[in-house]
Amino acid sequence: MSLSDTLRRAMREPQWARARLETVLCEALVRVNNAMVDLRRRAADEPSGFEPLDEITEHAWRRSDISDHLATLFLESLPVAPTLIVELGVRGGESTFALERVAAIYDAKLVSVDMGECARISPYAGWEFVQNDDIAFAGQFADWCSERGGSPAIDVLFIDTSHEFEHTAQEIAHWFPYLSKRARVFFHDTHIQRIFRRRDGSRGVGWDNQRGVMAAIEQYLGCSLDESRDFTTLRGEWIVRHYASCNGLTILERLPQPAPPGELETGAEVAVESASQ
To answer: Are residues 162 and 31 part of one domain?
Structure first.
């Protein structure tokens, strides 16, 4: 939009002009803040020696609205040993970068869903992109998996779409029935702010989503949560972990259920047999 077009629109739409001015000022403040942070920014952490994690850490060094959480997404997904990972919301592929490395370790299927065209985001052989509304696709998911000879049981579910309350509540209602017994669910943007803060002190420009994602989680869990701080808590069958920086990441981990009497898992059977010898 040219300067003259911008001025004409500002005269016709004063509310748009105020919002645009606010955004410009926020972006300017963020640039100044981040320049000051960069002057004292320490070097990257020493490599872990685990190549996938080191790749993610290096990638996250380039700041984004989720960069604080990429290593967490990777590390928190590993203990699940997933067979099927579903990513709702792809955009530039930041979360895909972490999830495809989890999938590669376990030779898992990674299914990514987005309304936009994202078919070239990932080179991972086990990745499949579906361009569709994620709520509509949820209704087709069981048949979609069956046609490909797979189970619809989701071990890792990542949600980062509209960030609006009604949509997020619908995602919970439509996708949670597919969760496996060992599933973990990751919600990004559970603490969106007009100007958000990263752990290194840098900042970025966000928007006011009226707590949409966190409000939907609260409705599902039947409780109130304070997304402005880090916390770990237990609500019903879920261990809930929340990280407040960088727009917020909230993790729901299913509480492990004890095996029914007489149904020991293989590891327990081995332990009992060893103890009896």
So the answer is: no
State which residues form the domain around 145: 51-254
H or E stretch including 147? helix 141-147
For the entire predicted model, the pTM comes to 0.85
**What Rg value do the Cα atoms of the chain yield, rounded?**
21
Please tell me whether residues 153 and 199 are part of one structural domain.
yes
**CA-CA distance, 118 to 124, in Å (whole number)?**
14
For the record, the structure tokens of 250 come out as 């909230």
pLDDT digits (tens, 9 = 90+) for 201-257: 999 998 889 999 999 999 999 999 999 999 999 999 999 999 999 999 999 999 887
Query: With 0-12 CB in 10 A as exposed, 13-18 as middle and 19+ as buried, what is 93?
Result: middle
pLDDT digits (tens, 9 = 90+) for 42-90: 666 789 999 999 999 999 999 999 999 999 999 999 999 999 999 999 9
Distances (CA, A) of 116 to 15, 29, 165, 171, 220: 29, 31, 21, 18, 28
242 neighbors 227 (Cβ within 8 angstroms):
yes
Question: Closest by alpha carbon to 102, among 80, 132, 133?
Answer: 80
Same domain, 33 and 60: no
260 located within any domain: no
**Domain tally, the chain:** 2
